[in-house]
Amino acid sequence: MNLLKISGSPHVHSDESTKKIMWRVNLALVPMLLTGIAYFGLNALLISIVSVACCCLFQWLIEKFILKVPSTVCDGSAIVTGLLLAFNVPATADMIWLVAIGALVAIGVGKMTFGGLGKNPFNPALVGRVFLLISFPVQMTTWPSVGKWFPMTTDTVSGPTPLGILKEGGNIDLPTLTEMFLGHMGGSLGEVSAIAILIGAIYLLWRKVISWHIPVAFIGTAFVFSGILWLVDPTAFVDPVTTILTGGIMLGACFMATDMVTSPMAKSGQLIFGVGCGLLTIIIRNWGAYPEGVSFAILLMNAVTPLINRWCKPTRFAC
Amino acid sequence: MKTFKMGGVHPEENKISTNAAIEQMPLPKQVAVLMNQHLGAPATPIIAKGDKVKVGQLIAEAQAFMCANIHSPVSGTVNKIDVCKDIVGLPKTAIYIDVEGDEWMETIDRTPDIKRECTLEPKEIVAKLKEMGIVGLGGATFPAHIKYSVPEGKKAEYLIINAAECEPYLTSDHRAMMEHAEEICIGISLLRKALGVPNAYIGIESNKPEPIRVMTETAKKFEGIIVEPLVVKYPQGAEKQLINSITGRKVPSGKLPIDVGCVVSNIGTTFAVYEAIQKNKPLIENILTVTGKKLPSQHNYQCRIGITYNDIIRHALGELPATTGKVISGGTMMGKAISNLDAPTTKGASSVLVMDEAESRRRPESNCIRCGKCINACPMGLEPYLFSALVKNNRIEEAQAHNILDCIECGCCFFSCPANKPLTDEIRLGKNKVRAMMAAKK
Amino acid sequence: MILTAVLVLGLIGIIFAIVLYFVAQKFKVLEDPLIDEIAEVLPGANCGGCGKAGCRAMAEAFVKQGNMDGLHCPAGGEEVAKKVAALLGCTPEISDPMVAVVRCNGSCANAVSKNNYDGLADCAFANSVYAGESGCVFGCLGLGNCAKACQFGALSMDPETGLPKVDDDKCTACGACVKACPRGIIELRKKGVKNRRVYVACRNKEKGAAARKSCIAACIGCGKCEKTCPFGAIKVENNLAYIDFNLCRLCRKCVAECPTGAIHAVNFPPLPPKKETPATGTPAPAPAPAKAPEAAPAQAN
Prior knowledge:
Chain A is an all-alpha fold. Helices cover 60% and strands 2% of the residues of chain A. The longest helix of chain A is centred in the first third of the chain and has 26 residues.
């Protein structure tokens, strides 16, 4: 007979594990991958594969040769980072090799420097993305044109994004709202289709991987704030529906601001976090140098997350 | 259906022994009666080696305030008064009695008739509870006579009977309700009288439809007993959560239920109260569930207190299955892992739960991913992840400032942690350190 | 354009410099420079062995008191004491060098596991959950709180025995491990001539049979050592022998007498074959008045 085990209670555990959570996120990202491939063709697929493969490879190398710890690639978090990084770059041929650099920064600087999953203060995918944006501004703002479904060629004819059009005050027609909702517009690989993002987000909500607080606060704040601006001056500012459907707000609010590691833990803190992200995004979009501000907004709010955690406590039962 | 507002988890219920009727456990050859089977100071033995004792005879007396009388669960000769290791291997004092026959005290009414009338005054009821050594059987083994003496200036408004049995596997309360509904209701009426409260509420989790039906029907014959079905959510049976579920009130930090006008009693205790008051039978027996997923048979036993766990296992199973990984006294969420099967049962024991090797293995711990599941699961609104970090870095004062002492050790945080961090262990360690720090400051 | 920038930045710099100067003046804390000097000499490990919050606090205490009476840095030892004394201008307080001693021999072989601990790897927690893998309530739990507490890398857990191992050369006798052990197994004992020590490697206060049941190397309190000791250094209380290191003359007679091998003699050459070896050093009667074993320093529990 075995020796009897001794431990403190409880003696059972739910089936939750980090691995399961990460694979659920991966599953939720599949619709965006599919729409990305649908709109941007082979490039989108290649970028995603390179990004995921590089993230996994760098994590494995760092854990094996620098940290000398058992590999945690199997937990799926590197794949999440890889996919999110791929979803945040334009689907052009240039990005296929650039995204590998982004992966190195995301995993090496954004994640493993701090001690790996759970210890990173910033969302690794966004660290990689912002690094690429600042280092390769031309490539990162050259958008593939969207014309037909499943473009199998790898043309790099640059097309405009709605946000670019708006920023430049250009005269090209904006896509219709339906096109925006389905994602038939210029933009980063995974951010274009609101419907795909919503499908993924609903799956995550159902599996209780994320809670509604951050996405609702983020998108709601962006909607209300841009709505106020639009009401004040409809010629200078974008209407709120276009605001939330273009650019990375949907993707950022549902998948990157909700990253467990870098967002606050208490519900009240999550609301504050979402509101902060929404406000900063609109401020950067309207008054900043870049047409898009979601990445910067989330990274800035990541930086104040420890403070929010300190300040926002769950309601105590007995006080 | 009522429930508490905050946190909670839903572990697999595993109530596999619900249909096993209560059997009588045969008398062992020897029992060891521990002197501290209750919360507070140990009782003092009043018999000596070689004395003959009868079933129900007082063998150890409560001399401190927080203490309870102990009666002999068997008849026979006192073998020795010596050190006895309890279920976790810690030495305690015990009276060893060699069993000879089964001769009961004459005062105890052993007829199966149900005695309904009681002419005792509230004070007399409480005095008799003390005499009969009744303690709370919900786990904390709080001496009953202290609980039912409402302190000056405070008033009991609710009597809450805890029949939630929210712990996985346990079915002793379930069986007691099925088989002794009327006795339990009489016991509740007695407690109601002792406290002078208008209504008693029996909280039963809704995964026990049969006991709810039986108790509701029986309660109709009694005045002021209300059955409240509760949502199936752990820890529904924790004292503070149960009060919150039924009355909506919250027991403040560091306060007792009586401070919000509530007295909570376990359903098993009410049966013991009935037997003590109406039948003069001291607390010498309790109902134990013997269960486990991999066991060939499931049982509920009425056992004499002081029988060893090995005796129970031998009678119920022959021997433990070869794949046994853990034996637990209590449920899977708050029970204690038994390291010494030669230890005797105590008044508060409620089960022998045999877990399989694979089922009982803890999975390797990984980094906290700050998912906040522990915060969502905590029924007390605390931050287990934070305590884990603070305790690890010995920041005990901060842990205290974040109300670590409010933790009820229900285990929801560890249960729900995807990183398998032993949060409940760390919090317990932290609480011990906070208490040590407070003691050192005094 | 460039000129304006230089001027503006220069001006800002000057303004800040002035502000900083006045703030520094305003909040200047006058402190005895001696504190810094002494803190420099102290080991700087902040081990807490002196009973102060850290080396800095100890330096402050030295300066405040002006001499070394009652203040002792165990980690620094004689060398540091002399340096501090030179700085303070007083006589150094030098005590016998001490070393941490593990008083448990419940190794995997001697105290066979009867359970398998599967919880938080912390001795204090395990101590609150159960008796121990072997069932010994007094023995080492083997989870290494002492090794974690050691700032000097002198303690390590031996994977073979499951017990902590003290590196005599690295141990500074700061006492951190003594405080860390929830069972009071580690004691600071006199380091002894050539690191030679005789001690009872057991804390079990149970009756002999019960003690033997959990560990074959347990002290069973038989009292043979007490009778054998020519210097009255051994006391048996609560079924447990204790050797007072102030009285022990390292004769090792008790080691041969102990039926369970609970008394350990370390760093001795192998005993010569002749039975009646006189004690090392002069066999004079014990000079100091007999001290109760409880008076031994850092006796936990």
